[in-house]
Amino acid sequence: MNKIETLCLLCSQPLQSAISWKLLLTKQFQPTICDRCSAQFEYSSTATALYQYNDAMKNFLHQYKFLQDVALAKVFRQELHARLKHEKATVIPIPMHPVKQRERTFSHMEELLKAADIPFIQLLEKTTTETQSSKNREQRNQAASLFRLMDGAHVEHKEYFLFDDIKTTGTTLRHATEVLLNAGAKNVKSFTLING
Asked: What percent of the chain has pLDDT over 70?
C-alpha cells in the first residue's frame, strides 16, 4: 500500500495515511488533522450539534473565520458528511452579510458544506453587518429580523434544514426559521457544528 504524507492543518505535524480500496471506493475523506488535535474537540451531547464549544474550538473558529484559513473547512468534513448525507430536507447555510463576506473573502458556512460534499441552496440574505457575538442575550432577543429572502427566491411548501457554525442563544436560527416559515416553508429544522 502506498502512503501519502501530509501535514495536520492545525499543528503542522506529519500525517500518514495509507491509500486503500475502501478509501477509494467509499466516501471517506483523507484525514486533515492529527489524532492529538482531534482529541481536543469535545463531541456534543445534543442531536442538533456535532461539538461543544471549548478552547480548541475557539482557536479553530478564530483561525478559520478571522484569519481566513479556508483550508480548515476540511477539518470536520468527514463528520459533517456522515451527519448530513442522508438529510432529505433542502440544506440552507446561514448567510453572511455581503460586506462581511467581501472582508472575509469566503462564506465560512458554504465552505464547510462544500468540503463535506453536501448540496445546498441559498434563499436568505443577511440584513445587518452586526454580529450576534457582540450582543448580550437580551440584545439578541430584541434584535430586528436578521434575514430576508433573496430577490427572486422562491420558498416551496417543503422541509428546509438550516446549517450554522455555532448556536449560543438560538437567535440567528430563530430569525432565519421565521423568514422561511412566513414565506411558505412546510417545516424548518436546524443543525450546527458547535453548541455554544
From this structure: 85
**CA-CA-CA-CA dihedral for 177, 178, 184, 187, to nearest 10:** 40
Q: Dihedral (C-alpha) 154, 171, 100, 182: value to the nearest 10 degrees? A: 20
Residue at grid coordinates 420558498: 155
| Residue bearing the bigger pLDDT, 22 or 60 | 60
Shortest CA distance to 46 belongs to which of 161, 193, 153, 148?
Answer: 193
CATH number of the domain at 41-195, please? 3.40.50
Mean pLDDT over 3-31 rounds to: 75
- Given a contact cutoff of 8 angstroms between Cβ atoms, the answer to whether 83 and 155 are in contact is no
C-alpha 149/C-alpha 167 separation (Å) is 21
The least confident of 29-33, 51-55, 60-64 is 29-33
* Best CA proximity match to 163, nearest among 66, 82, 89, 78: 89
What 8-state DSSP symbol labels residue 43?
B
Amino acid at position 1, single letter: M
Q: Where in the chain is the domain with CATH 3.40.50?
A: 41-195
Q: Per-residue pLDDT for 26 more than 80?
A: no
> How many CB atoms are located within 10 Å of the residue 76 CB?
22
